[in-house]
């Protein structure tokens, strides 16, 4: 039985329910202080590219990407974070990657990093945008999410040159306590718990899998934090485990961020920040390690 406090069980939300949900959301941190200020600092050694602005009521959020100094002969590496704003290490991991390792890849790849795709949700520590839409199911033509549409427009001119796209995410306890119940309520469905895996895992593209690539990333990250085990059904969050720490989704079919290019190498990272065995610093480091391992593998196996 759906017990979410908004809506009537079995009935999808209408405008009144969405408004009631929006009224419950509170700003809890600052995109300006946490993200834009860091991007501004990184601008002294990288190219900062505005790619749009989100407007929700009287709030406005500039959308910013970071590029290194590009050469047309080099492949493009796309790094995205904060598609789900509440997934903190995705945002800070992307920023730390640029700060700590961006210059290492100068002259080797063209980096395009969008560290916080969903700034309104970052400030609310939420999965959805202000319209109760999940950006990470909205990367498709005529997207209902401005966040997704803006990123696709940014990537469009180089879409066919992307060698690697790594999308940085987290799976948290609030997925089970808040976000999945809210999703079920919004869509008029019953909530079915499926558990939260303790550890890091990856999501490969079932339509174009690259198992050796995924395992190279897992091997690198394992030196930083633990890898999520399969459950008793040999699954992680309801999907079959195809290799240690790896599940697969049809990325483009589901409208997921990691499916927006025809890149040979694609992956979605999933860090578990609520684990008693991991600190926020470890979670950020796991994301950074995953990005570096992914780029190194892609360059070695072009």
Automatic annotation (TrEMBL):
The keyword Plastid appears for this protein: no
Listed transmembrane segments: none
One Pfam assignment: AstE_AspA_cat
Keyword terms: Hydrolase, Metal-binding, Zinc
CDD domains, alphabetized: M14_REP34-like
GO molecular function: hydrolase activity, acting on ester bonds; metallocarboxypeptidase activity; zinc ion binding
Family per similarity comment: Belongs to the peptidase M14 family.
Protein name according to UniProt: Peptidase
GO biological process: proteolysis
Cofactor(s) required, per the database record: Zn(2+)
InterPro entries per UniProt: AstE_AspA_cat, Peptidase_M14
PROSITE patterns, alphabetized: PEPTIDASE_M14
Domain Peptidase M14 as annotated: residue spans: 27-302
């Amino acid at each position: 039985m759906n017990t979410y406090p908004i809506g009537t069980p079995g009935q999808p939300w209408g405008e009144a329910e969405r408004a009631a949900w929006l009224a419950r959301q509170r700003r809890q941190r600052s995109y300006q202080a946490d993200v834009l200020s860091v991007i501004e600092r990184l601008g002294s050694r990288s190219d900062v590219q505005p790619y749009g602005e989100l407007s929700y009521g009287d709030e406005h959020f500039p959308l910013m990407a970071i590029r290194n100094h590009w050469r047309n002969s080099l492949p493009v590496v796309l790094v995205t974070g904060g598609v789900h704003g509440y997934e903190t290490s995705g945002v800070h991991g992307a920023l730390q990657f640029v700060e700590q390792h961006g210059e290492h890849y100068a002259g080797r790849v063209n980096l395009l990093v969008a560290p916080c795709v969903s700034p309104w949700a970052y400030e609310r520590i939420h999965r959805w945008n202000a319209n109760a839409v999940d950006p990470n199911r909205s990367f498709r033509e005529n997207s209902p999410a401005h966040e997704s549409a803006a990123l696709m427009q940014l990537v469009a001119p180089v879409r066919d040159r992307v060698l690697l796209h790594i999308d940085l995410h987290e799976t948290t306890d609030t997925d089970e306590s808040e976000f999945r119940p809210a999703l079920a309520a919004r869509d008029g469905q019953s909530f079915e718990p499926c558990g939260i895996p303790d550890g890091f895992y990856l999501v490969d593209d079932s339509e174009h899998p690259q198992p050796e690539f995924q395992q190279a990333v897992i091997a690198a990250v394992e030196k930083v934090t633990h890898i999520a085990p399969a459950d008793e059904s040999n699954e992680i969050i309801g999907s079959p485990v195809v290799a240690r720490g790896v599940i697969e989704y049809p990325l483009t079919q589901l409208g997921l961020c990691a499916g927006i290019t025809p890149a040979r190498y694609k992956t979605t990272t999933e860090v578990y920040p609520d684990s008693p065995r991991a600190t926020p610093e470890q979670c950020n480091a796991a994301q950074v390690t995953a990005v570096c391992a992914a780029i190194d593998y892609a360059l070695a196996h072009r």
